[in-house]
Design a protein that fits this description.
InterPro entries: Imm11 (IPR012433). It contains 3 helices and 8 strands. The chain has one domain.
């Protein structure tokens, strides 16, 4: 699960993301700042299996080297969500939400368009 700051957790709440968070005990490391594990509760079946390059294991796309998304209805797209039947660390962000995240100046992660995404676990 990703670790996020209280500020990002509050921002996700404002975006009306569906998630659960679990506070970490970090007072000895960072003082008064609070950090949380976050578990996104929404997923969207938008993985383009025809245009993506990946290894399939048990119906899930793993070892993704080329990512393409399709069939996204932007009217119902959640602000932040998981991509169904792919590696759990892969998180999608709507265009509107990504603009807001950039404007707020959040750091510690990268926002990458699907066509430019490269799996860091596969880079040698």
């Amino acid at each position: 699960m990703p670790v996020i700051s209280r500020r990002l957790r509050d921002f996700l709440t404002q975006l009306e993301c569906k998630f659960e968070s679990f506070e970490l005990e970090t007072s000895q490391l960072v003082g008064d700042e609070s950090f949380y594990f976050v578990n996104l509760l929404e997923s969207l079946d938008c993985f383009d299996r025809q245009s993506s390059m990946f290894v399939e294991r048990g119906g899930f796309a793993t070892s993704i080297s080329k990512l393409r998304l399709a069939n996204i209805d932007h009217k119902i797209e959640p602000p932040v969500y998981r991509i169904s039947k792919t590696i759990p660390a892969l998180t999608a962000v709507s265009d509107v939400s990504s603009t807001s995240i950039i404007e707020q100046g959040f750091t510690g992660f990268s926002l990458v368009k699907p066509e430019n995404w490269r799996n860091p676990a596969l880079i040698t």
